[in-house]
Amino acid sequence: MKEKELFSQSGYLTIIAGFLLLIVPFFTILTYIPALSIILSLAGFILLIGLTVIGPNEAAVVTFFGNYEGTMKQNGLRWVNPLYRRKKISLRARNLNGQKLKVNDKLGNPIEIAAVVVWRVSDTAKALFEVDDYLKFVDIQSEAAVRHLASSYAYDTIEDENANITLRDGSGKINEMLEKELNERITQAGVEVMEARISHLSYAPEIAHAMLQRQQATAVVAARKQIVEGAVGMVEMALARLSEKEIVHLDEERKAAMVSNLLVVLCGEKSVSPVVNAGTLYN
After folding, report:
1. Dist CA 8 CA 69 (whole Å)
2. For the chain, which terminal residue's Cβ has fewer other Cβ atoms within 10 angstroms, N or C?
3. At what angle do helices 171-186 and 134-152 cross, to 10 degrees?
4. Which stretches are transmembrane (predicted)?
5. Cα–Cα distances in angstroms (integers) from residue 164 to residues 46, 60, 104, 169, 215, in the given order
6. Percent composition of the chain: helix, strand, coil (DSSP 3-state, to 5)
7. DSSP letter (8 states) at residue 247
């Protein structure tokens, strides 16, 4: 079922006519004709029943004895058939702050994840007639989408080195995929997802400490690797410059000793105390 717009008349003239029909019979000669007074008053009351106030970003879904007649979206005081049944529905953007979910990622690690979803009703007919409760439907489907997304990717590249996208590093792409999946899941309820973002992401408490230690160890190894690569380059440059300038001639044994000393100086975590050789290089 698709939404269709229902034309409604302005209610300002109707409200004046309705009040006149209610009041006039009691202040005119019609007072002496009770039957006619009752009929006119009843007509005025029926006219007033058809009045509806539609606010900004609000709509009223209209049915007539179970048949969907259309949706009123014109703002202000409107009037329709008094026999129509009207149910108002908000068209404003809404926030869904999802609760923290405990899920296993692609590699089976327990993680905690939550998302914030901004959505609005785009088709009032689907929202009211295609699902039982569109508010609850959005809530449940959002949770299902977050769970499916979390189980499809690894938390970090530390666990899956070949992964192009991870939950932690690919936030932009992850948010796009979450928004796309949510729209696919809840479009049948006449709801449009305007934005979806991961608001919370962490390892579960039982493995958080171990994973933190692993991340720290990985960071230390990466840092030491970079230091060693830089030190080797500096040693290579030093030997090349000494040989080019012919400042000193070293045999292979002395070169090895010099390389060892330079690497200790460059790669050591603490300051090195130099030892001055007052004799020859070989003594």
Report:
1. 12
2. C
3. 140
4. 12-33, 39-65
5. 66, 47, 19, 9, 19
6. 50, 20, 30
7. S
Structure token pair of residue 38: 């009752």
How many DSSP H helices and E strands does the chain contain? 7, 10
Residues with Cβ within 8 Å of 195's Cβ and at least 6 positions away in sequence, in order, are: 117, 118, 179
Could you report the per-residue pLDDT of 43-73, keeping only the tens digit for each?
A: 888 888 989 999 999 999 999 998 999 999 9
Going along the chain from its start, the domains and CATH numbers come out as: 9-89 (no CATH), 94-203 (3.30.479.30), 218-267 (no CATH)
Say what percent of the chain tops pLDDT 90: 37
Q: Which amino acid is at 30?
A: L
Contact in structure between 214 and 205 (CB atoms under 8 Å):
no
The answer, yes or no, to whether residue 95 has pLDDT greater than 90, is yes
